[in-house]
Amino acid sequence: MHEESSLNILAHADNGYIGVCECCNEYNFVYKNVLLVFQQEELVRFLDWLIGFRTHDDTYLPLPHGRTRVYRSPLSNMFLAFDEQELDELDQLFREAQLILEVRSLLAK
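and the corresponding C-alpha cells:
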C-alpha cells in the first residue's frame, strides 16, 4: 500500500469499498474501520470465507452490541464481528467486485 497511488475502486458501499492499486496490484478491502490488503486470490478467498460461513454454527456468537457473527483471524487475539445487515452489504460489495474483476480479466485477453 502506497501513500500516493492510482487506486481504482472496483466496488463501493456506504461503509466501505474494494479497490486495487494499479502500480503494485494490491487489493484493498475497506469496511468501516478495517483496512486489509490482499493479492487478488487472497481477497477472493477471504470474502468467500466471510460469506460462506455467515450461517455456520461456529461463527454464531451474539455480542452485546448486536453483532451475531464472529470470525476468528489467524491472530489469536483478533476477531471480526458483523451483524446480518453488514454481511448483506459485504455480500453485495463482493458480488460487484467479482463482476468487475471478471470483465477486467476478459478485456485483458
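(Above: one complete record from the training split.) The chain is about 35% helix and 30% strand.
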